[in-house]
Amino acid sequence: MRNSNLSVNKSEQPVARQAVLPIYSVTPFTMLDFPGKTACIVWFTGCNMRCPYCHNPQIVKGKGRGDVMQVITFLEKRQGLLDGVVLSGGEATSYATLPDFIETIKSLGYAIKLDTNGLRPDTLDELLREKLLDYVALDYKAPPEKFKRVTGTDKFKDFEKTLNLLCTQTLVPFEVRTTVHTDLINETDVQTIINDLVAREFKGTYALQNFRHDNNRPTLGLLKPQKRPLDLSNIKTKYLNIELRNF
Hints:
Elements: H1 13-16, E1 20-21, E2 23-30, E3 39-44, H2 57-60, E4 66-67, H3 68-77, E5 84-89, H4 98-107, E6 111-116, H5 121-129, E7 135-139, H6 144-151, H7 156-167, E8 174-180, H8 187-199, E9 205-210, E10 241-245
Parallel strand pairs: 3-5, 5-6, 6-7, 7-8, 8-9, 9-10
Antiparallel strand pairs: 1-4, 2-3
Helix pairs in contact: 5-7
């Protein structure tokens, strides 16, 4: 067990109340984001990617320094009403005190789901070793040759380390997700991702998420609607459990 700096022990609360993390906001209730559980979502600002289809530019570019104890107080009041907490963003794994924050949440009886882009395999490795996660959703943005174009970073090898970590452990269920905007990736790219997952003997859910344009929510890259939908008939999917979202 870690020596958490975010303990809610009464004697340590003055120190805990000074702890800060770049928390943008909390969505108080969701039944869609944590499989099989009622949950809330804690949104972290800042991201180490710049995906043009991202619908959260204010979070990605934000510099929120939320009061951790406000979140803990909220969770204390929701004990028995919520099952879990989703950590999303932004990219939560960018922050060194995340393991302490998670340990505090788990001490209140909550399950933890982490949404991650996979660029911090070191952090994920620590969270897995400390048994601090109950579910992971990993974004597989693009195959190596298009990774920089889609994410704004050339760190595919870091992502691959995270994917390897998840595929070679058996304790924490996880899903892999790809958001599709056909101006960025095509059927061949999606098939390449599927083939990679099959080769790694991935057994979880692979979610194909269709980009939806929203005039009221401009994306980080100000993307326009797709010129054409993804042609699913040209993709071989029988070896994976594939879930289509927004198609």
